[in-house]
Amino acid sequence: MISIKSLSRRGFLNMGAAAGAGLLLPKTGLVRPAFAEAPLAPVDVKDAMIAFGHTGPVSDEGWTWAHDQGMKAVEAAFPGIRTSFVESVPYSADATRIFRQFVADGANMVFATSNYGDFLYDVARRAPEVAFYECDGRTHMDNLGTYYVQHWYPSYVAGIAAGAMSKTGKLGYVASFPVPSVYSGTNAFLMGARTVNPAATVQCIVINSWFDPQAATQAGTALLDNGCDVLFGIMDEAGYLQVAEARGAKAVMWNTDLRRYGPKAYITSIMVDFKPFYVEQVRRRLAGEWTPTYGLLPMGQGVDRDAWGETVPPEVAAKADAARTKMMQEGWSPFVGEIKDSKGTIKVAAGQKMTEEELYHWDWSIEGVSGLDA
């Protein structure tokens, strides 16, 4: 049995050792592991088949939709290539059967757009001639790589705008599960907000789903009823944005541009874009250059803030973007101690900068965030 943290596409499965030292690929944040064998043999585009196993429906306008756009980019870049996908792959033995069927159908490359752990690894071990990628994975093999995004940086930027636009200082967060991506997102968001409002707080409500418009709407309503006036979350749809629009509140979204569902409420979104990554990995696979990579796509290359909403004051946008520019041009990180957890314990010493590995695995709330820690 796997834990609740394993059941999230952005959670972590501690089922294998991380790869050792490797080559950092320029401008990508990805690493080519030192243990990788020779590249897999080239494949003619007319004989190639690329498969995608998705955690949700491609119509969600969120996480899965973004990955589906990546598949469409592959189709456009390589005319004649065959693609295949399955939506809403369950976290069960059915996942293994689906990934195994991809291989049986002739897939040369398989992308799992969520963390499927051993449901995927068993298939990869039995198909060494097939290239596999696991989004938000952490186990590496000669034919299995991993990828994810450094979303905590744009979350911090969005937090600055949220803190400046909030009248109550109470920020609400609609959470899927208490997993690292939620901890890092809420912590970064509040740290950004506290640069303009040191008394700001974040209240979280966990709905135990990535895609549940009704539950997200109910959670957003409850947070607003409790005094929050800016909402954030990690949902794959626009439920809480619509609540914010109806109630005269503000909201920050995830995955895609959803402003049409709440143009007055919309501040920005944590945007993900996997198209360049997918096209490049398929190109390498066809050319016979593919060995696995693993790591985090940086801000500006896979994740970023969306264009600001129509009600974001120019001075607020400028202040938030000053931090974004400093991150992108100077490599600045705001995640420097002293940082205490929600119980007041010092977790990051004064002057100590959190590593990307620590940010990726963040599993505790900072002071001011409530609703996630037991």
Automatic annotation (TrEMBL):
Location of the ABC transporter substrate-binding protein PnrA-like domain: 50-289
The record's annotation in PROSITE patterns points to:
TAT
Q: Which Pfam families match?
A: Bmp (PF02608)
Cellular component terms (Gene Ontology): plasma membrane
Is the Cell inner membrane keyword given for this protein?
Answer: no
Q: Which InterPro entries match?
A: ABC-Purine-Binding, PnrA-like, TAT_signal
Name of protein: BMP family ABC transporter substrate-binding protein
Organism per entry: Paenirhodobacter ferrireducens
